[in-house]
Amino acid sequence: MSLAASVAVARGPMTVGLDVAVADGEVLAVLGPNGAGKSTLLRVLAGLLRPDDGRVVVGTDVWVDVAAGVHLPAHERRLGMVFQDHLLFPHLSVTDNVAFGLRTRGVRRGPARAAAREWLARVGVADLADRRPGQLSGGQAQRAALARALVGDPALLLLDEPLSALDARTRLTVRAELRRHLADYGGSTVLVTHDPVDAMALADRVVVVEEGRVVQAGTPADVSRHPRTDYVARLVGLALLPGTGEGGTVRLEGGGRVAVAEQTAGPVFVAVRPESVALYPSRPDGSPRNVWPARLVAATPHGSTVRCELAGEVPLIADVTATAFAELGLAPGTPVWASVKASEVAVYDR
Amino acid sequence: MGGRWAAGLVAVALGVAGCGGDDGAAAPGGATSSAPDDGPSGTLTVFAAASLTDVFTDLGGRLEGQHPGLDVQFNFAGSSALATQVVQGAPADVFASAAEPQMATVTDAGLAAGEPAVVAANVLQIAVPAGNPAGVTGLADFAREELALAVCAPEVPCGAASEEVFAAAGVAAVPDTQEEDVRAALTKVELGEVDAALVYTTDVASAGDAVEGLDFPESAEAVNAYPIATLTGAPNPDAAAAFVELVLSEEGRAALSGAGFRVP
Amino acid sequence: MRGRREAGVPAPLLVPALLAVAFLVLPLLGLLVRAPWSELWPQLSSPAVGQALRLSLVSATAATLVSVVLGVPLAWVLARSRIRGRSVLRALVTVPLVLPPVVGGVALFLVLGRQGLVGAWLDEAFGLTIPFTTTAVVIAETFVAMPFLVISVEGALRAADARFEDAAATLGADRWTTFRRVTLPLVAPGVAAGAVLCWARALGEFGATITFAGNFPGTTQTMPLAVYLALQRDPQAAVVLSLVLLAVSLATLLLLRDRWLSRAGAAA
């Protein structure tokens, strides 16, 4: 069941205006910072919020058509939703939580429970069927919540930050499982997240939402390689530099030039990956074409490396090993030289 | 409840007067009083049955008029509640009860100064809503199941009196409610919620046009005497004596009789 | 360093707390000390006391049931709906809390009495008169006690996470099903606490009852009325009756609490 939605919701001074389309079996990730309007979109799709304008069509069913005065209430929509903090009903057993949606839709208790147990087995928590949600770990609860959302074979699956309440290790496993279940699921999925890793790992397509608008759309690989806003660039850990292509070099809007490996013209973005930036205490010998003086602004541990934020004519992010960081005697305010090979610089049209 | 609050207020008032100092408010005996007429002054506290409210307020005002230095405070409530308060040490000068057993509570505790005097008597009357919609004619109507009827609870004086008149008249009364005091019974007549209630003559007299009173011969079987006494612990015995004297005087008797009491 | 949580009570809390305990418990102790214990059994076994006690328990329980049936939906409206004038409604609902109960009784007369707005019609159309009946006792107690339940349940509803109701809606539950199967179980402890408060208030109700329902042994004389009237004639008996009422209500509350707690424990 495909989804086509176009919604407008006035939210204080901001108006959320988003158009999304999701094909059958496709997973669309809606990525954006807090307050961008992601959850507003999800609540409209779920029927928990009436939009001020727009249409929501799933398959051939019109769920919302403001102009025509159509608004199908939430409980009449064939959908499943997974919330950030699972929202399993604390007074019901895990089985009854999963059977809940079938019971409200008229399935008798026996068959509903049987179907619930089957789904609990599929998500790997069959042994917890008789527990109360309070006795489950975060990962177990989120698995049960996924079973609860999918058991009714919904036309639309809505995932609202499904992994963000989990600890890092659990998130990794549950993400992998979720990926598998989404692959098996035939309907349309909308995943709301502010974690680019979720979007990259789970989605077929990504839309980036900022301040109520779609600012970028594309495949996860495309979006992560070619960010178009600072927000996305920061999310995927790139330094994003707008400029103008002039043959083999780009004149940056903030000043300075970057040598690139291809011929360009007109407005372009230059994206530099942190691991491709090398730092030196003094101007390096030889003749690398991209060398700039800079100053260390901030340094944070990032995996086995240290992520260094640099200020200067060309603002960059550099990942250096802890050893190198120590050898360079880096501290906030330290002047350094930054260098990057032209072949390591991504350039694409704005 | 109201009685206790009132008692508290009186206690506060007394305290304030006492602190006030030089007018001898709380000075026992009043001999040191500097009032020009050398009569009672200060604060006089009278505990009296609720049915005496109108008459006693009037008489108290007259006494204050005769003695400019005197302030008369009243605590009107059910006699039983008042007797309990007096026994528990409430600072009263005079106690006037609506029945003898409650006065006995006080005299038994040795708190009455001298023998209580009977100031008035009250008899029962049938109270009906204005126009007497149910056509009540006499005590026998209290045996009619179809009427809504109120009497006082047997625990309170008017209820005990009611039982006596029913017994004397040979009426098997079927009341719908036994009210906690005579005023509550009267209220139900005023609201038209009962067709008749057995209350005191004085209550009917005070109720105004909403209530009519019907006399009945058996009322003579239960004449309720109102005893009054000054109290041994009276903070202001001179004023207490003056008040009791006024109540028992021709003037006092006339006022009581005007309010529907029988006067001895 | 024992790994035990610091359990001391700071003095600024301890002293007022002890004063509060003394204030609440000493009058009770007074009743216990002064009680003529030899009269206890004769009073307990007297049919009049049994009658009043039974009537009290039955009417307070009925009033609580009525309060739950009507009050929980009202609490939901106050907590969840967006109807206009909700704050005015809430203020009106809490009026019985501040109204002297006797005035409440008179107000009930004005509506449900023989001459009352609704009562006159009931009398004419069906020959029904409410005052001076056990029904009137239940009505008076409900009038005075229901606000306790409404306020308690409204608080529980406000504290409950409304997103569970969203979750239920996405699972196909309409608002009524959501209320029955999700909201109500979630606020069950609040409803229980409110019902207990309501029951206790109804059990002790005096002013509105004696005004609206009158006082007649067997039909409208509840324990508080019996206590009050006993006080007129025999204060000693009144003390004993109070203790009986006290003991029965305490026993009931403890029993309920135990049962309820043990069930909640099994659920957790």
From TrEMBL, chain A:
InterPro entries membership: AAA+_ATPase, ABC_SmlMolc_Importer, ABC_transporter-like_ATP-bd, ABC_transporter-like_CS, Mo/tungstate-bd_C_term_dom, Mop_domain, P-loop_NTPase, Transp-assoc_OB_typ1
Keyword line: ATP-binding, Molybdenum, Nucleotide-binding, Transport
Protein's UniProt keywords contain ATP-binding: yes
Pfam families linked to this entry: ABC_tran, TOBE
ABC transporter domain segment(s): 2-236
Gene Ontology BP, a term: molybdate ion transport
Domain Mop: 285-349
GTP-binding found in the keyword field: no
UniProt GO molecular function: ATP binding; ATP hydrolysis activity
PANTHER family in alphabetical order: SPERMIDINE/PUTRESCINE IMPORT ATP-BINDING PROTEIN POTA, SPERMIDINE_PUTRESCINE IMPORT ATP-BINDING PROTEIN POTA
Protein name according to UniProt: Molybdate transport system ATP-binding protein
UniProtKB/TrEMBL annotation, chain B:
Stored SUPFAM superfamilies: Periplasmic binding protein-like II
InterPro entries cross-referenced by the UniProt entry: ModA, ModA/WtpA
Keywords tagged on the record: Metal-binding, Molybdenum, Signal
Residues annotated to bind molybdate: S51, S79, V182, Y200
GO molecular function: metal ion binding; molybdate ion binding
Gene3D superfamilies the record matches: Periplasmic binding protein-like II
One GO BP annotation of this record: molybdate ion transport
Domain of life: Bacteria
Family: Belongs to the bacterial solute-binding protein ModA family.
PANTHER family assigned to the protein according to its UniProt record, in alphabetical order: MOLYBDATE-BINDING PERIPLASMIC PROTEIN, SULFATE-BINDING PROTEIN
Protein name in the entry: Molybdate transport system substrate-binding protein
Organism: Geodermatophilus pulveris
UniProtKB/TrEMBL annotation, chain C:
MF terms in GO: molybdate ion transmembrane transporter activity
Domain ABC transmembrane type-1 residues, every copy: 53-256
Annotated transmembrane regions: 12-33, 53-79, 91-112, 132-153, 182-202, 237-256
Keywords: Cell membrane, Membrane, Molybdenum, Transmembrane, Transmembrane helix, Transport
Localization annotation: Cell membrane
Membrane topology: Multi-pass membrane protein
NCBIfam families documented for this protein: Mo_ABC_porter, modB_ABC
PANTHER family xrefs: MOLYBDENUM TRANSPORT SYSTEM PERMEASE PROTEIN MODB
Family per similarity comment: Belongs to the binding-protein-dependent transport system permease family. CysTW subfamily.
Function: Part of the binding-protein-dependent transport system for molybdenum; probably responsible for the translocation of the substrate across the membrane.
Name of this chain's protein: Molybdenum transport system permease
Species this chain originates from: Geodermatophilus pulveris
